[in-house]
Amino acid sequence: MKALQVGLIGFGTVGRGTWDVLRRNEEEITRRAGRPIRITWVATRTLDRAREGLRGIDGVNLTNDPQVITRHADIDIVCELIGGVEAARAVVMDAIAHKKHVVTANKALLAHHGTEIFAAAHAQGVMVGFEAAVAGGVPIIKALREGLTANRIEWIAGIINGTSNFILSEMRARGATFDTVLKEAQARGYAEADPTFDVEGIDAAHKLTIMSAIAFGVPMQFGKAYAEGISRLHQEDIVYAEELGYRIKLLGITRRAQDGIELRVHPTLIPAKRLIANVEGAMNAVLVKGDAVGPTLYYGAGAGAEPTASAVIADLVDVTRMHTADPEHRVPHLAFQPDQMSDVPFLPMGEVETSYYLRMRVDDRPGVLADIARILADREISIDAMIQKEPSEGEYQTDIILLTHRSIERQLVDAIDKIEALPTVRNKVVRIRMEALN
Amino acid sequence: MKALQVGLIGFGTVGRGTWDVLRRNEEEITRRAGRPIRITWVATRTLDRAREGLRGIDGVNLTNDPQVITRHADIDIVCELIGGVEAARAVVMDAIAHKKHVVTANKALLAHHGTEIFAAAHAQGVMVGFEAAVAGGVPIIKALREGLTANRIEWIAGIINGTSNFILSEMRARGATFDTVLKEAQARGYAEADPTFDVEGIDAAHKLTIMSAIAFGVPMQFGKAYAEGISRLHQEDIVYAEELGYRIKLLGITRRAQDGIELRVHPTLIPAKRLIANVEGAMNAVLVKGDAVGPTLYYGAGAGAEPTASAVIADLVDVTRMHTADPEHRVPHLAFQPDQMSDVPFLPMGEVETSYYLRMRVDDRPGVLADIARILADREISIDAMIQKEPSEGEYQTDIILLTHRSIERQLVDAIDKIEALPTVRNKVVRIRMEALN
Predict the structure, then answer these.
(1) What is the mean pLDDT of residues A103-118?
(2) pTM, two decimal places
(3) Which residue is catalytic, options A107, A142, A207, A289?
(4) DSSP A406
(5) Cβ B314–A150 below 8 Å, yes or no?
(6) For the complex shown, is ipTM > 0.90?
């Protein structure tokens, strides 16, 4: 049967991985897809290096102009693997305009322009695959979009940034500071020279935006996401959390609440006995709570050449299997049919309800705790657990660590303002959110 | 758009769960599927009870004759939820003969008759969905068949029997014996009155047979599966394993080895730090190793009314989305195209290579360990770790616990025969297999 022809745009880590896996497993992939899938065109800015890498291989053409591929009559599927937002958007929109199916690993692109891209694809009758955009090789998009279709999704909580999870794992295992571990991660190539996207939660917020849309049938609204990273996490809070039976993870959480949808990325205390609390190193894991199935968890490598290629190629096979079928039979891009999206709002962070870990440095004298407890009680914030350390020899200050029950963030922020205004409280209150995930 | 009409055959736990979830989430499911899915017929042997349960509900018809449904002109999809093998086979084959799509949760049926059923479905151009047959609500069939299509699957290791995992979790947590925990599990409805299928590994072998076929593109061959259960596991081996840094789980393992495919269910030591070693209670988890993606893990409820219904309905939505598309566009039942199945053999258990935990009761005198070590060395079985306990006060015997490196099962069985023949060895050698899962 005639091969499906793929044009790769971008030949960096993921592009090269896709090329390698597709060739190595060609026989099995063809047996699954029903027809061969061939990369016949590659576009790259570094033509010389690509020429070197592809030396001696027949049937593949090179160009440095993406439009040669997006407009080529023989190309069935365009793989956008250049990353970034604006150039990638131009490539994807041009491919769709020329009735090519698209496969992309680009979470930033979709979080910002997904609505426009899926509308254009729908109008042109082509498919856009993006399994690789969330959690790398873990087929979480497919699970949400097809595996859990029976469920009203209640919430999703994911470790979806491998760099951050690697740093947090090392901080906990070795008692090292954020700065130390980040430098090592950069030296070993686990973190970028500018790590902002990873450690400040922006990359995770991109991925969370995509999952939220699929879970709840809402348009992608990255602008509504709250993102707080791990760069200001103190080693001692990891230790206190451990004492209390918790681990700190950078979680992306999206939840269907009474009045809207929560969409938030932040360091989070979770009970140490939960499976997801034990996901270590650069691995990803997504915990999904459905009303019928209960909690399910999906775990695997969230980045890297071949894990990402695994997801890119899964999309290529899906497109191949459906290529000539009429559009009404295809799985909808965002799980729900395009005319069935909901306009339920995303909640501002102040309206979110969660539990909190609070650490404060206080004078060691009578009445301090009573003042703090009154401020919390006045705002209906109740205390779940507490550690108060004995002051060290010769010191007159000590740490109080409080865990609260579920409270409204706005109330909690107000309480912290009042606590910090007490003359007996000596520092800014450290506040980390906490989720039971049960 | 016209509703897809479903006939439920069987209205027990899963049938009732499917009914409940489909009604409760009707609005969201329709938004995903693109058209309504309605149960219009229910067949059950207990008509009175079903009538009571469905009182006041319009548009559903009851019968005690499955053929009324399998041959009804208006029915699009037949859901077989009666369980068992022969009666279920008759229902499914009759439905296929009358060009109905089929959704089933029946692992025993597929493990025994899958080849025949999928061939008939292929000939008639209908789909057979069976997501619910393995790991309940966890979409592991979809992950293997669609999510990981890029990969050469190297092995799968799964906790795929909730009853056994519940018993093992309780034995470890409370130091209780198998018999004690089983009786409690039966009292609480977690285990059947006759628990053989669950605790002897047969149910797990059914599920493993199905996963193996999908992973490796081979026909289902339940007869080639090795099944060993947990009923003869001693509490003390769980404790010794723990001391050595391992947990004991009933794993279904299928692996692509040099000369064929391994297909085996048995209690297995796995490193305690692996995520899958921390799956507790009645939950299921499947760890899949692909050559590109590396290890991925899928976790969730493996049984129960609504988790199983979640998978049944996911299949209903898949069938609905594809219903009128021509068959060539559908995902192949067993992941590989039907004319692309492989005839690679399954390996007999004697040819399987794995590591072992051995416990033996020996006289506490010089030379005993040397004799045992020589027997192992002569068969190229090398020792990875050992515990030798001091004898208790006034005793002249002690336990030796050995962990071996990877060895051929046939050699190991021969070594155990020779060890048991030593006059200084006082009991049958306890042998539990061990997997690093890395």
Answers:
(1) 96
(2) 0.94
(3) A207
(4) S
(5) yes
(6) yes
Average pLDDT score, chain A: 94
Q: How far apart are CA A411 and CA A382, in angstroms?
A: 12
Residues in B touching A148 (Cβ below 8 Å): 139, 310, 314
Q: Which amino acid makes up residue A22? A: L
Q: Are A236 and A176 in contact (CB under 8 A)?
A: no
SS3 annotation, A341-399: CCCCCECCHHHCEEEEEEEEEEECCCCHHHHHHHHHHHCCCCEEEEEECCCCCCCCEEE
Whether A207 is catalytic: yes
Domains of chain A (ranges; CATH) run 4-139+305-340 (3.40.50.720), 140-301 (3.30.360.10), 353-434 (3.30.70.260)
Is the pLDDT at A375 greater than 90? The verdict is yes
Give the pLDDT confidence of B149-202 residue by residue, as tens digits: 999 999 999 999 999 999 999 999 999 999 999 999 999 888 889 999 999 999
Whether A326 shows a pLDDT value over 80: the answer reads no
pLDDT tens, residue by residue, A383-392: 999 998 888 8
Average of per-residue pLDDT values in chain B: 94
d(CA A179, CA A189): 15
**Coil vs helix vs strand at B348:** coil
What is the β-pairing status of strands A407-408 and B261-271? unpaired
Q: Which two tokens stand for residue B393?
A: 């006060």
Cα distance from N-terminal residue to C-terminal residue, chain A: 49
CB-based contact A290 B310, cutoff 8 Å: yes
Q: Return the percent helix, strand and coil in chain B, to nearest 5.
A: 40, 25, 35
Backbone angles phi and psi of A219, in degrees to 5: -65, 155
Q: Which amino acid is at A37?
A: I
Q: What is the DSSP letter of B346?
A: B
In A, which residues are within 8 Å of B293 by CB distance?
A: 136-138, 300-301, 306-307, 310-311
- Separation in Å, CA B208 to CA A404, B156, B333, B342: 45, 9, 16, 17
Q: What angle do CA B222, B228, B230 make, to 5 degrees?
A: 135
Distance CA B283, CA B103 (A): 23
Provide the 8-state DSSP code for A332.
Answer: P
Q: What is the pLDDT of residue A392?
A: 82
**CA separation (Å) from A320 to A9, A22, A129, A314, B84?**
18, 14, 11, 10, 37
The burial of B86, by beta-carbon neighbours within 10 Å (0-12 exposed, 13-18 middle, 19 or more buried), is given as exposed
- Phi and psi at residue B226, to the nearest 5°: -100, 130
**Per-residue confidence (pLDDT) for residue B190, from 0 to 100:** 82
d(CA A408, CA A352): 6
Torsion A82-A85-A91-A96 (CA) sign = positive
For A76-100, the pLDDT digits (tens) are 999 999 999 999 999 999 999 999 9
Copy the structure tokens of residue B39: 């149960």
Percent of chain B with pLDDT over 70: 100
**Run of H or E including A117:** helix A107-124
Give contacts of B331 with chain A, Cβ < 8 Å: 321
